[in-house]
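Weekly modeling sync, notes
Attendees: S.R. (lead), two postdocs, one rotation student

Agenda item 3: backlog of single-chain predictions. S.R. asked that every request posted to the team notebook include the full sequence so nobody has to chase files. The rotation student volunteered to paste the first one in as an example of the format we agreed on. Action items at the bottom.

Example entry:
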Amino acid sequence: MGNERGRVQPRRPDRPQVLRGHRDGAGQQVKNNATHISCDASTTTICYVFYNSRYSGPSDHLYGQSSGRLADTYSENASVRISWGA
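Predicted structure, as returned to the notebook:
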């Protein structure tokens, strides 16, 4: 079925985002439930995960084309911001 690690269903305003696939956590809400992040964008991109909604509080970040375990927002994450590189 391909690499489905941490893939998120497309956003629908009437439903929370949930993880797809068949691995641990599949079908669970992403908010306050993620333990790892995968930043599949270009290497000049930075993906940020924040503790609070509206991009505030403690955060973790990861550069594009890498993945890893969350530290400051482990299972307590509410928003994601992507900083697109040049």
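Discussion: group reviewed the output briefly. Confidence is low (pLDDT under 50) at residues 1-11.
Action items: rotation student to repeat for the remaining queue; S.R. to check formatting next week.
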